[in-house]
Amino acid sequence: MPDFRSSIIYQIYPRSFNDSDGDGEGDLMGIIQKLDYLHDLGVDILWLSPIFQSPNADNGYDVSDYEAIQPAFGTMDDFDELLAGVHKRGMKLVLDLVVNHSSDEHPWFVESRKGKDNPYRDYYIWRAPKDGGFPNDWVSIFSGPAWTFDEATGEYYLHLFLDKQPDLNWENPKLRQDVYKMMRFWFDKGVDGFRMDVIPFLSKDQSFPNYPPGRFADASVYANGPRIHEFLQEMNREVLSRYDRGDGPPISIGEGIGVTAELANLYVGKDRHELDMIYHFDHAVPRDEHHFLKRAPEFTLLELKRVFDTWNVALEQEGGTGKGWQNIYFGNHDNPRVVSRFGDVEHYHYESATMLATVLLTQRGTPTIYQGDEIGMTNCQFNSIHEFNDVQVLNAYKALSGSAEFSDEAFLKSVNYIARDHARTPMQWFNERNAGFTTGRPWLNVNLNYTKINVADQQVRDDSILSFYKRLTRWRRKTPAIWDGTYNDLLPNHPTVWAYERVLDEERIVVLANFSDDEVYVPQVEAGEVILSNYASQSFTLQPFEARILVGY
Ligand code: GLC
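Above: the input record for the complex with alpha-D-glucopyranose. Below: its predicted structure, written as tokens.
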């Protein structure tokens, strides 16, 4: 079994992780200082959100030089030291590959916009106006039209995200070769893999049709274009497969935006030679523009179970493109805090955070722990629009503020639940000024609950969320049924208890998780001895947010 299946990933959002030099932004040295902490947590692979030079219009997801380190994060020497430190501790390092688009400040785009016959013109997607207006009706995921007119040459360029994030033209073989060259640069340094940003968007229907009827602003329209699998196979052939260091090719994780369970194996099926795994959006917090005034209701447990079941069944299918692998997450830098979504921060903070940890680390797939979730970091109270940094919030505010339904209260209410900034507030290390994240002024406000929720406090307590995570990661490491066993939902119709088994050969693990703050009668799922729980003792009922792992027949 390849390593990546039994591994645990930890996602670092570098700007918010740990600031070593007091400029208010996290940096690579700051990560180096915490490597022992991460190793002790029991994670195997560190994924860093982008660390490359960027004007930060979208916090590094707008890269202006793919082979340079963002100055606020440090230098290439710092990077080399970080990589060596990760390897020395037996962990792996995965970087973020953001190649659906670059920054408009990338030299390729600076050249491209200069003239129609510039050699870099075709590195981006330029179209003439249609009937005096936009080439089609697509809108940006960050509000407004997906096309921006450039006076210099009288054409529009495409940007599925910000106007400062022009989409690269993957139809152009020269662009593809330049991307592969850049990937080799990092692999030659010894990097262990890439998480690939919005990877299903790379290939676009070259006729650039309008939205199909009824699918206005639906991101899945941009995904799974006609040549996507050809491009990914080429990338695999020309780069990934050439860096097999004896324990398999580098790790590849696709951000599977717009990929349905039915399509998943086309990306990750075992004979496809594309990606190791993808993560889907089927349980992500919906954030289309209208959700900024009225958020969608949170997923019920029944809905969550259905999503997980559908994906497990789809990926397990034999034959054809079958038997693919997925990456499991509850939180990341694009979603609010998991304990604020599915837990009860006020009354059962420890219980609900540890229950969610139990589910995350026992599902079928490679789990990713998002920084701060291991101490149960929560959403933050934002009191005005000015407190937000995320361009998605700011743009939605601008776009909606003229509309009839708009009110400041409605907007604030919604973003206090759905905004990405909830996940981006600085990591809470100590109960001291700025949570010990920085000695300077943090780029984004620290959540004031750091006085209660912080690493230092949880490190010394056996009954903390952090200590529970450590017990879980250590137990998972020696439990093949969790890495590789089958998944079977034991009570698919129970509205508040998630009960499932993971079976491999003679080993059977049963997980019971109470997703409510009520006591629930323990459902009849024959099992054996309780080996891990977030309550000191068990009875016939599951206590509020209780999680139990049982082993044996
Ligand atoms: C991905 C990233 C997100 C970013 C977007 C554009 O969804 O995870 O943070 O804003 O792509 O690069």
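Notes for the reader.
The longest helix spans residues 173-189.
The mean pLDDT is 96.
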